[in-house]
Every structure is written in structure tokens, then in C-alpha cells.
Amino acid sequence: MTYREDIEGIDASILMHPKVWEASGHVENFTDPMVDCKQCKARFRLDILGDSINEKKKKKFIEALQENIKNDPGLSTQFSNLSEKAEDLFTALLESPAFGKLMLNELNCPQCGNKNTFTQARQFNLMFKTFIGPLEDSSAVVYLRPETAQGIYVNFLNVQGASRQKLPFGIAQIGKAFRNEINTKNFLFRTREFEQMEMQFFVKPGEDKKWYDYWKNERLQWFYSLGMTNGKLRYHDHPANKLAHYAKEATDIEYEFPFGWGEIEGIHNRTNFDLTRHEQFSGKSLKYFDEESKEKFIPFIIETSAGASRSFMAFLVDSYYEEEVKNESRSVLRFHSRLAPIKAAILPLVNKDGMPEIARNIETDLRKNLKVYYDDKGAVGRRYRRQDEAGTPYCITIDTQTLSDQTVTIRERDSMEQIRISSDKILSYLFEKLSK
Ligand code: GAP
After folding, report:
1. Which of the 8 DSSP states describes residue 15?
2. What's the 307 CA to ligand 1 centre distance in angstroms?
3. Ligand 1: which of 234, 305, 311, 313 to mutate, most ligand atoms within 8 Å of CB?
4. N or C: which end of the chain has fewer CB within 10 A?
5. C-beta 310 within 6 A of ligand 1
């Protein structure tokens, strides 16, 4: 957003009028199918019930099901149709009306181990509800936003008018989103409260496919430009029968985590669905006036929806290395310098002979421009290791030579090479290196 003139920023409300979520379709459609165990009362999302069963067992299970239905031509045809199309046949069978119940009767509860104890699947809305004002009745219900996108849609014309943007242009925001996930897991991967960074790009109808392809490529390159390892990212295009209620075309950017491939960002062609619905529900026009053609129309929207917390976790995993250096092991986060939370550390070799004073002056100068860290505790080797673990790209050491010629050493995190430069050149040196 900061680097593009065609994208504006916004900070919308977390609690919005409940009609926003009716218009968006979330009240009706933002649901996951769930099953409860009647024995131990545990609740599971149907689409991840298979995660706790190993592949060999699943295969056996599917073969037994196929054997059981072989004398029923109707079910056999449905089975073949599903097995031709489904990427994950076990889950597809569980989610299908024809086989879901049969399968659930045969499965063991992952929590208590009992068989044939599941209820039928029921839809469970993922939005958190709360109340405005003192009365806890249905007229006071509001929702914690499950995505930041809707705050952008309802403010679309405010932002467009104030910024005088013309199509195509985007509105972006970073903020908290909340989902009542039943099974949170894998550290930051699935949480109930998480940070999204979404951008909604408004385009002329008919130009949506072109911009969808543009953003699909652009977003993958963004991850690579910040140092993500080649081959660790892939697209997962959604088949038509799995599209969200608002999408015409959608893909996920997936990262290969230690626990398997997982979505870190979604790119969606949301058509004119959202703005049309907000217009209907609010009674206010959300049409854009095109000065060139003198036409009024509802723009199409291409959405790039990244999880900030999930992407952060992917960068964290991707940059973590353990290695042997001079017979010692070190842990290092090889963060791209733009992602490193601390850009440089300032280390006086010893706490005497005027070194701390020089080091503090350098720190004060750098801190006006960069996030830096001052550390004078322990042997310098240990201080380097601490900064390696935090992913700090540069360590500046003030030593005996500094006292006579005003030079310092700068150590680079990954190569561990050191150079000596004059202390008045530190800032320009770091700027040049960090801007790469
Ligand atoms: N506005 C569209 C939208 O919200 P989504 O695919 O549901 O699309 C977008 O979510 C991104 O938000 C995901 O790619 C993921 O990075 C992140 N995300 C979704 N649910 C999450 C959760 N429970 N915990 C952490 N991140 C989540």
C-alpha cells in the first residue's frame, strides 16, 4: 500500500451494524458442518475429522464402504463420481449427504475412542456474537468481524470520493478478525483471534479475470521477494463446487509447513456480489460513476486476503536454521532484512575505557532511523548468538581500535563475515544493505 499510488489504506470498525453480516451472507452461509460425540460430548469439524486417522486406515475404510454398497447401483455411481473428482476422498465422502451418515456410524471418536457415537452433521456459524447496550436480546446482537473485507466494502465510496481514485484501485487494511473455530491447532495456524491483511481491488466489470490473474501472480512474488524458499509455495485453485458463497474464482497460496501444506493467503474474484448486496440491504447506492463513459455501475472486486499471523508463522518456519559453527551449534533466523524486527545491535566489547559511551552515541544516532538494540551483557560471542536467534541482520561492535581511529566492526548474520568501517558511515552502510 505504501509503495503504490493506486491503493489506499483504511482502519474500519470491528463491530459493525449486524445488517452488514446479513448482506455479506455470513449470517446464513459462514458455517462449518460439525458433529458431536454423544458419549464424551467433544465437538469436531467434519472436514478435519479425518486428520486424526492415518492414510492406511482411511484406505481400508473406503474399500470396506465400497464393498458394502456394491449391490446398490445408485450409491455405486455416486461413489465413482466422487472418487474421480475428490482430492481427499475420505473427507468428500464424510461431507456427502449419501455417505456421511454411513461413515459416521463406523468411525471412532478421536477423543474417547467409542464407535457409532456421532450425531448427524449440523451447521455451526463461525461468527462470535455479542450485544450492544445492556439488553441481551436478539435486537441487540452484533458480531465480531470474521473478515476485515466488509469494513472496506461499506466504506468504498467514502474512500473513493476522499482519495479521488479512479478504477482500477484498491483499499487495504490490516486488522483483527475473529472466528469461533472449534479446533484451534498448529500454533498460529488456526486461532480464534488473528490478524488479516486484506486488499480489495475495484475494477470495471469485464476486466476482473485480467486483474485476478495479475494479483494471483503478484501475491506469490511478494512472498518470494521477502525471501521465502523456492518450491515451498504453491497455488491451490478451488474447484467450482468448493467456492465460497461470494466467489467466482479463487485460489489459495499454500506454504509447506512441517505439518504439511497450509493456506496462508486467499485470492478471490468476488464479482459485484458484496457491493450489490450492501446496496440492497442499506438502500444506499454503491455505484461508481465513470467519468469517461458517463456510466454508473457496481465495480467487480478482486480480493487478496492474507493472514498476517499465518504468513508470519510461514516466514518464521522458513528462516529457522540450526547449524554448527566452529564446533558450536547456533540457531539463526535468516529473516529477510525487511522482516527482521531488529535491524542492528550495538555491542561495546567491554564495559570500560569509554566504549559504552561511544556505543550509546551510535545507538542514539541509529535509533532515529532504525529499530536497534543495545547489548552489553556477557561475552561478545554470546551476544552475537542472541542476535542470530532474533534474526538481527547486523551487529556493530565497538572495540579497542575504535578508541584510536573511530572505526567499528559490522558483522553480517548469515555469512558471519566482519568488515571495519568508519563510525560516521554506519547509517549509510546499513541503509544501503537493508534496502536490498
Ligand atoms: N476475506 C476473505 C477471507 O477472509 P479466508 O480464506 O477465510 O478469506 C483469509 O481467510 C486468510 O486469513 C487465510 O488465508 C488465513 O491466512 C487467514 N485465516 C483464516 N482463518 C484463520 C484462523 N482461524 N487463524 C489464523 N488465520 C486465519
Report:
1. B
2. 5
3. 305
4. C
5. yes
Cα torsion angle, 387, 388, 392, 393, sign = positive
Q: How much is the average pLDDT of 42-52?
A: 86
Q: How far apart are the first and last CA of the chain?
A: 19
**Model pLDDT for residues 189-226, shown as the tens digit of each residue:** 999 999 999 999 999 999 999 999 999 999 999 999 99
Cβ of 213 below 6 Å from ligand 1: no
Residue closest via CA to ligand 1's atom 15 equals: 307
How many other CB atoms are found less than 10 A from the CB of residue 435? 8
Q: Tell me which residue of 195, 194, 47 sits closest to 124, measured CA to CA.
A: 47
Residue with grid cell 575505557, as numbered in its chain = 353
Which pLDDT tens digit goes with each residue over 143-197?
Answer: 999 999 999 999 999 999 999 999 999 999 999 999 999 888 899 999 999 999 9
Ligand 1 atom 18 nearest Cα: 307
Could you tell me if 392 and 413 are in contact, meaning their C-beta atoms sit under 8 angstroms apart? Answer: yes
Q: For 58-96, what is each residue's pLDDT tens digit?
A: 899 899 999 988 999 999 999 998 888 777 889 889 988
Which strand (E) or helix (H) includes residue 32? strand 31-36
CB 257 within 8 A of CB 263: no
